[in-house]
Structure formats: structure tokens, C-alpha cells
Amino acid sequence: MRLGFAFRLFWQNFRANQNLNFLSIGIITFAFFILGLFLLVAKNLELVVEKWGEQIQLVIFLKENVQEQTLKALKQRLEEREEVKEISYITKEEALARLRKILGARSGLLEGLERNPLPASFEIQLNKKYRNLDFIQSLALELKTEPAVEEVFYGQQWLKNFLTLVRIFRILTLAIGGLIFLAGGFIIYNTVKLTVYSRREEIGIMKLVGATDHFLRIPFLLEGITQAVSASLLSLFLLWVFWLIVHRGLEVPFQLFALSGISFLDSGQILGMIASAGVLGILGSMVSFQEFLRV
Amino acid sequence: MIELYHLSKIYEREIVALADINLKVNKGEFVYITGPSGAGKTTLLKLLFVAERPSGGQILIGGRNISRIKARDIPYLRRQIGVVFQDFKLIPYWTVFQNIAFVLEIMGAKRKEIRRRVRETLKRVQLHHRIDSYPLKLSGGEQQRIAIARALINQPQILLADEPTGNLDPDITHEIIKFFVEINDRGTTVLFATHDRNLIATYPRRVVALNQGRLVSDSEESSSGFKLGEF
Prior knowledge:
A: Alpha-Beta Plaits, 4 strands, B: Rossmann fold, 26% strand, globular
């Protein structure tokens, strides 16, 4: 079959059934918009979770009168560990200054102190893959045995709650995402299918004058792909406009996103959406072709 | 050209559309298939262009048994048979040219050749001035002539017509039947399903009558001559 004629036939059909095609594209765009919106929300919540995760830290409170050499050696040993992302030393004075800042107007309370009661400390931030409760617990136990260490603090209860929340969030994302993808896919697939179905009579005529299935399949495949892919592009554009509005207008009020900012889908997700549109378009037109058109 | 042996077609719930049909149509013959509604005329034609499969018996076209033709070979058989329907079966959003040219396009003919042959065929049905019109802008008679042109474009050996004048006025009916007669005169075998007795009386040819799925008479085999009143 000449490809040129397939394209001509496709274009002829597409133009002649403009209303139906635009309606289908509209429906598919809506389905993709919902899918994209979900991806966008899930992605940004994940970023928030990640930012919060970065704040997981261990604080090592040091004993009084530890020799500087011992401190240096301890710091170096900690820095060399692959699980440690960043380590900073907080002197007694800095700790007091922080407390003063936190107390604000009531910092006068500290005036009566004869000496600074706050210990010096190391604050350790961990690399992403070590930010789990088991590891942090074992690390804390290990560090406690160091002679210079008085106490190790890592916000045990908060961390436990936070990590449970992250787990629930990820399960929910997968479950809701899976459902939305199934529903969206079903809508897209069926819309393409209906377009072919509405044209079964014409396809029947073409077959009666000797067109092979193979000959007819190509223009209808092209139509299915065009519908689904153009709808996915349109929905991505709408999503981008939506993102711009949210990004500019709502970033500040949304304290939730204050740390991470709101980002758009990455190129992998965008390509994934367009590719899945192509696949659904092909599937929809192929299956309806087999199902309805036995003439 | 066409041979049917003990041909039968039974639909679901034991509805018998055709039973034990034996018929031989020679090359270049013009045969009316007639009978009341539900006699099996349309089913018979459908079996010939394989829109339906027989429940029993054999169909030979040009010596080839098409009773068990493979699905992938059906389109190639259809390209050798012209079919004209009562409801024209034209694609409304294609022009007259596109409707007719499609038959040649699917066979991979060259654009120039397609244009020449479509023009020639439209001249034969006297509608060359309608080449760029859309079917719904044409009268019923004109639409049927376009459908005939489409059936003829490929110069088929066999032309099947299923009540092609069923939707047309008497004047136009005569105009259309003349085309079929002319086509037959040029050597094409014509099977023409109709229940229009006047038409058969005006243009007498071999008449095969069906009733309730059975072949009840064949004017060629009847020694005493066929009487129209028999169906």
C-alpha cells in the first residue's frame, strides 16, 4: 500500500469528521489533564517530602572540656563516613546565641546565668539512602560509645512519625495514581474506539469494494494516534498554564511548598505521557478495528 | 461462470435463508433473481461476494471454489466482482471522484491512470460533469449511477445488483436498467435481484425465482415458459 494514499485517506477522513474528532480530542485532553495534574501534585509532594528528609539530622552533644585534638579527630572520622553528607561544629557560644534568638523577647531569662550551660555539638546531615530509622538508631548507639560524646539526639518520635507518613504517602500515591491511570487509559482507549465504531459503515463499504484490513488499518491507526497524541500535547499545554498560575500566584501562601518550590513535570514524565498517548491511540484503534469491522 | 451446488444458509435459531440451491449462470448471462421479501435474494448475493459464509454446499466462481475462501483472500475476490446496492453505499463525505477512485487506489493504480479511468467510467454513466460533487447533492438516480460507475471501474467479469432500483422512481428505474443491459451487452455477467415484475416484463431475461429460501423456478429450465405470476 502506498503510504501517501494512507495519509491522504487519513486526512480526508479526519477533516470530514471534524466535529467528532474534536469532541474526542476534547475528552481525551480532559482525561490526560487529570492524569497530568495527578503527576504534578504527586511530584511536588514528593519534592516536599525530600526537602523535609534533608532536615533529618543527628546532633551529637559533646562533653565539657574535651581536648581540641580529640574533637578534630572525631570530626575527621565522621567526615570520612560515606553516610555523612555534611557535618558542622556548633560551639557553646553559638548554641547560646541560637537559644537567645529563639527566646527572642524573653532572652533576658539568660542574663542570670553564671556560666554557659549549653554543650558544644556536631550536627550531622545524612545522605538520602541512610535516612531511615534503623540506620539512624544504630549510628546513634555507635556514636554514644565515643568518649567525647555526652548524648546523641535525633528527634526519635518525630522521625518515626515522619517516616511512617512518608510510607503512607508513597502507598497512597501508587494506589491513587494507578487508579487514575487505569481510568484515564480506559477513557482514552474507549474514545478512540468509539470514533472507529462510528465509522463502521464507511469501513464496511471500503471492504466491500475490496479494501484489505491491512490497507484500512493504517489511516485509522494514524487517526487514533493523532487524536491521542494531540490531546496529550494540548493537556500538557493546559497543565503548563495551570502550573504557571499556581507557581506565580500561590507559591507564597502555600507554606507547604516554601522549601521546595513548585516544579513542572520533568522531561521523562512529559515524554512518558506523550508515548502512553501514542500507545493508547494505537491500542484503541486496533482493537475496535478487530472488534467491529468483520464485514 | 457461477455455479451453486446444494447451497444453504441457516442463521441462528434455525432461520433458513437458503436451502439446497442449485444454479448455473453462464458467462455473459443476465439473470434476474426474484421473489418476495425474505425469499433469500440478498442472502444469495451476499454469499457470492462473501459478506456471508454458506452453511452448506459449494459456490464456484470461474471454476474456483469460494465456499471456504480464506479471509485474507476475500478482498481480492471482491475486486473481481462489481456490486451495486439498493442504498447505494456511497461515502457521503467523499466526492464522486474519490468514491470511484478508491477502488483503483486500493489496487495501487497510478494517479494519472486513476483520473483517466474515473473520467471514462463517469462518461459511461453520463455523470462526468458531477465528478467533484458530493453524493448527498445528487438525486437518487444519480447516486445509483455513481454506484454503478464504482462497480464498473475495475471492469469486473461479474456484476451483482441487489434491488438497485428499489429506491428509485419508475422513470429513473428504466434509465438504470438500461445501463445494466448495456453492461451485459459488453460481456459482463449480471445477477440482478429485484421483485419488480414490470421491470422483468419490460426487459425480459432469464428469471430465477426464490421463495422462502428455495429455488422455485428457473425460466431457462422451464419447458412451458416462465410465468411471472409464479412468485
